[in-house]
Amino acid sequence: MSDDASDTPTERGAEVGRRIGVGLMYGLWKPRVLGAWKVPATGPVILAVNHSHNIDGPMVIGVAPRASHFLVKKEAFVGPLATFMRSLGQVEVDRSTVDRTAITQALGVLARGGVLGIFPEGSRGDGDFASLRSGLAYFAVRSGAPVVPVAVLGSTDRRGRLIKGLPPLRSRVDVVFGDPFEAGDGSGRRTRAALDEATVRIQKHLTAHLDNARRLTGRQENAGRPAGH
Predict the structure, then answer these.
(1) What is the pTM of this model?
(2) Would you say residue 47 has pLDDT above 90?
(3) N or C: which end of the chain has fewer CB within 10 A?
(4) Residue 49: beta bridge partners?
(5) Over the stretch 66-116, which tens digit does the pLDDT of each residue have?
(6) How far apart (Å, rounded) are the C-alpha atoms in residues 164 and 51?
(7) In this predicted model, what pLDDT tens digit does every residue of 192-201 receive, in sequence order?
(8) Residue 48: phi, psi to the nearest 5?
């Protein structure tokens, strides 16, 4: 990852990304957005998004009410796409190590009162928040930013898919924003024990939100089924 100052995520770049995302997502799918008003209008916010489709990040970037900077695995930053993604304010992260550059950039986004998007499960999977990494807890406790759970729910039907990992084109994709909550216990502690407690607290909130989002959208039948099945 380059340490060049030009790689620093900017709000202007993220806003351009949001506008591009709006056009792409509404052009290729049929997003239905619920609870967007729950995202605080100002100040630092962390969007915690489940991850079962390859479009989850771009979808949330496009439909969220504020411009957002997502932590994105470095494998996605290839060729000309790398420069493009950085210009849109996205944060490249090396998941194989403690990526201090990505950590500094992400904390910088929050310190400037911006919106940071995170997939707390890490890689794409069932999207059920069953296995969370501690990164989300670290950023939430360190910054004091509220966490807003986001459930992205698309069709699990393979029919109509042109690319594996994507919902069928023109199908409905529900994006449900939940109530913001504080990950820490109010003590300001940043110890390993405090982060572990925060991770458990976060998982309870995210799982409850996902269950509620499935009921709200009528997608209970997708619960527990792997993406693409």
Answers:
(1) 0.88
(2) yes
(3) C
(4) 150
(5) 999 999 989 989 998 999 999 999 999 998 888 999 999 999 999 999 999
(6) 14
(7) 898 999 999 9
(8) -100, 110
What whole-number distance in Å separates Cα of residue 209 and Cα of residue 206? 5
Q: Give the span between the Cα atoms of 220 and 153, in whole angstroms.
A: 10
CATH at 104: 3.40.1130.10
Encode 107-146: b = buried (16+ Cβ within 10 Å), e = exposed: bebbeeebbbbbbbbeebebbbbeebeebbbbbbbbbebb
Start-to-end C-alpha separation, the chain: 35
SS3 205: helix
186 Cβ contact partners less than 8 Å away, ≥ 6 residues apart: none
Q: Decide if 177 is inside a domain.
A: yes
Strands 68-73 and 172-177, by their bridges, are unpaired
pLDDT 10s digits, 111-130:
999 999 999 886 555 556 66
Total domains present in the chain: 1
Residue range of the domain that includes 134 = 5-217
Q: Is residue 107 within 8 Å of 139, Cβ to Cβ?
A: yes
Asked if residue 39 is part of any domain, the answer here is: yes
In a domain, residue 16? The reply is yes
